[in-house]
Design a protein that fits this description.
By secondary structure, this protein is α/β, with parallel strands linked by helices. The chain has a single domain (about 15-160), classed as Rossmann fold (3-Layer(aba) Sandwich), CATH 3.40.50.2020. About 30% of the residues lie in helices and about 25% in strands. It has helices at about 15-30, 45-65, 80-85, 115-125, 170, and strands spanning about 5, 10-15, 40-45, 70, 100-110, 130-140, 150-155, 165, 175-180. It has a 5-stranded parallel β-sheet, with helices on both faces. The chain has a 4-stranded antiparallel β-sheet with strand order 1-2-9-8. α1 packs across α2. The two termini are about 20 Å apart.
């Protein structure tokens, strides 16, 4: 359900919708993994890291054992830093070796695909996983590279001037997804 929560902010997913979407995404990830013990969730900063934590907790509840999760900062592998600017780099945290693992890159929103391209490059600097999949909460379109998510919570067509924000209780004090209009 889409509802307006201000002149420039439209709710795309409520807290309840987000919870339901996380459960669905976790189920899809488990169905795609031949061995859930080989799963490794790597969140892309900033919100992808927290989303990976939320997904890891849901996966643990579903499969009965902890699922490894960490973070992968692709900042130094970006080809568009002059255009998008830099943010404070976060340390990459890999809880285990990548060799032979089923890695799921987790990001909040996919837009041009350049962040994912940089993340793939950064990932291969750390090792060679058996397979790499991409999970995003929102696909807003406007791809500049041929990169598509394997798991997607919601497709929300946007204009280039609009943006999408994922709110997670662990960071923002509330859950939801909103569309911000100029």
């Amino acid at each position: 359900m889409v509802s307006s929560i201000g002149d420039h902010c439209v709710e795309i997913l409520s807290a309840q919708d987000l919870t339901r979407t996380v459960h669905r995404l976790a189920s899809q990830v488990l169905e795609s993994a031949p061995d859930s013990r080989q799963l490794l969730l790597l969140g892309i900063p900033t919100r992808g890291v927290e989303l990976a934590r939320v997904l890891a907790a849901q996966l643990e509840a579903s499969c009965g054992h902890p699922v490894d999760q960490g973070s992968l900062d692709p900042t130094f592998h970006r080809d568009d830093l002059a255009r998008v600017g830099t943010r404070m780099v976060q340390a990459t945290q890999l809880p285990a070796a990548l060799e032979g693992r089923h890695v799921v890159l987790v990001d909040d929103v996919i837009f041009t695909g350049r962040t994912v391209r940089a993340a793939l490059e950064a990932l291969h600097a750390w090792g060679r996983p058996a397979v790499v999949r991409l999970l995003v909460m929102v696909d807003r379109g406007h791809r500049e590279l041929p990169i598509q998510p394997d798991f997607c919570g919601r497709v929300v067509p946007t204009s280039r001037q609009e943006s999408i924000q994922l709110w997670l209780a662990g960071v923002d004090g509330r859950d939801g997804v909103v569309l911000l209009k100029p």
